[in-house]
């Protein structure tokens, strides 16, 4: 009987193995309801696959909006854990820096804007990154896609910051086919890199397809049983320019708005890419011991096809539409699957969560702002996180205030400074949080036509303090600042507390030596030594010329807002 039982078990296991192999290419095996109760115990630390999209809004995924066709993402999220109280940063570099360091922007010096291609700045070199910690834990680490964390020195490149291999673009935005990237008129260069060299001659293939192909190649050549893998797929999509093969646009031909139609097609390409990656995970033996994380980097830009509806605001703002992110976790290792998590989670939490999951020592990294959220995600335990500092940007201050705007609270905090914090159910914003409109889905061809004014925020001019109960009012329609001055004071005090821990802002002026015309036509590192760098010290300090600098900064930010509107970042 024992022999027969053993034989039966072997047969069942063999059948289970074979049942995964007969699935066709580009398909994901169906799970039964009983699968949700099965938890695979890993023999080694799990393979970690982190997929980051660019500018994907809250309303730009199928399980939030059926007009967007994302069957793979919907299925993976439904079988895993949907993160419905998950926060990122409002623009590219800040989200990526916090993912890589587990620290708020105020603790890295990157609290203002993004790192532009000509700026001699990058992720602080004295900080140990997430992939470096995973390497220490024995992982093979690979990155494919958009970096946008600075590259002015070789020490800033992904291969010097913890990745064994890198294939992708270093700047914030490139053409999906030619891989050309511009930082102003006449300041354009090629931006596709293999390791630390320029990958010339690779143009012509759509970047999402090219990056997916590289990920599948890495998965096919790595040995999953010998070494755990960390794969960071940082897709350029769905950032502008709005480009897509025509075959993907056709299913959305019924959409009246052309920008929305192209954008939706690009989201569908992302869905196909994830389908191909997950198929490869199964095919090459990773899946049963893997954790797949899907996340956007910030909210969408509605004027280029994205949608954050029904949330307020958009990319580049501290309203919910700019910072509440689409995200989910899919893994056979989750103890409680097929559920929605309302636990408070922030992009800084991935650092300690993944290091802990990998068996690494989180305590080796001091000053983390993130929390290990794996018990919360996997088992549904209470979140250890109680608050989120969305940011403090001391270089962006509101110049004019109206009576009753909140200046009476300035004895605690200078409310002209752009800042935002979430504590428990409450969210506070000060200064200028950015355009606070509720932008409906783009269903008309002439968006944003005069009908849009029906949902525009007409009030708030000259205000500098807003307070919302986000749990009860997730769309930020009822400002409670006047009714709850006690809560305002408490949250202002928290901002003041965080500000005392902030490091100086690093936002250097553009360096003309970065011009691709001086570097063979490509965006590449251009500073070779510390002596070369001294000329462009970009740490802002208070001094006699503060007013002059602030005027220049306001002028810069006005131009930056225009660039946001025209999708230059």
TrEMBL record:
Q: Where is the signal peptide?
A: 1-16
What is the required cofactor set for this protein? Ca(2+)
Sulfatase N-terminal domain location: 46-359
User: Which PROSITE patterns does this chain map to?
Assistant: SULFATASE_1, SULFATASE_2
Recorded GO terms, molecular function?
A: metal ion binding; sulfuric ester hydrolase activity
> Which residue stretches, if any, does this entry annotate as coiled coil?
none
Keywords per UniProt: Calcium, Glycoprotein, Hydrolase, Metal-binding, Signal
The family classification in the record reads: Belongs to the sulfatase family.
Q: What protein is this chain from? A: Sulfatase N-terminal domain-containing protein
Protein source organism: Esox lucius
